[in-house]
Amino acid sequence: MRNLRVVVLGDELLTGAGDPKGLGWLGRVQARTPAGDDVAVFPLAKIGESTAQLLERWQTEALPRFSKDTENYLVLALSSQDILAQTTISRSRLNLASLLDDAIREGVQVFVVGPTPTGVKEYDSEVEELSAGFADVVKRRQLKYVDCFNPLKEHEGWLAEVSQHPRRLPGQVGYGLIAWLVLNRGWFEWLGMTEPQS
To answer: Which residues pair with residue 69 across a beta bridge?
Structure first.
C-alpha cells in the first residue's frame, strides 16, 4: 500500500465558501480519487494571500507536514490576490518560481491550479495576464498547470453564480466546474493512479 501526503495551499475557494453542499472543488476531487492507498489530504486555506505570502507559508506550514517515509505531493491553488496587492507580473512569476524550485529540491511533486475569473471585465483582463504568467513558469518546469481562467471566463453557469455572491465566489455549479478541470487535466496521472470508470 502506498502512503501519500497531499498538502493543498490556497485561498477561500479551498474551503468551499459559497457552496451549499460545503464540498468545494477539493471535496469533489477527493470523492473521485481512488480508495485503497493511504492518502492523507491537508487543505490549508488562507484568505487574501499573495504569492509572496504563499512562498513563506509553504515553508512554515506545508513542508513540515511531509515525511521522508511518504510520497509527498503539493497542490497550489493560486488566487489573483497579487493584482490587489499591486504586485508586478515579474514579481509574481519570481515568487512562484522560487516556491516551485524549493519544492522540487525537497523531492515534492507539485500540481498547480490557476486563478479563476470574477466576471468583472476590467479585473479579469489582469487575471488573464497573471494566469498566463503562472502557466509559463509552471510549464517551464514541466509540471501540471490547470488553466481555470479561459474555460470559465464565458461559462454561463460560472458567471451566474459569481455575479450573485458579494465576494465573487462560485456555488455548487462553479465548484463542480473547477473539480472537473482538475480531474481532467492530469490529476490521476500526477498521483500515479488509474482514473476510475464512471
So the answer is: none
d(CA 99, CA 91): 12
- Dmax (CA) of the chain: 49
Q: Is 155 left (phi over 0), alpha (psi -120 to 50) or beta?
A: beta
Protein fold of 3-188: Rossmann fold (3.40.50)
C-alpha–C-alpha distance, residues 160 and 96, integer Å: 31
The answer to whether 76 and 120 have CB atoms below 8 angstroms apart is no
The one-letter amino acid at 20: P
Instruction: Give the per-residue pLDDT at 35.
Output: 85
- Residues contacting 193, CB < 8 A, separation 6+: 33, 34, 37
Query: pTM of the prediction?
Result: 0.97
Q: Where are the domains of the chain?
A: 3-188
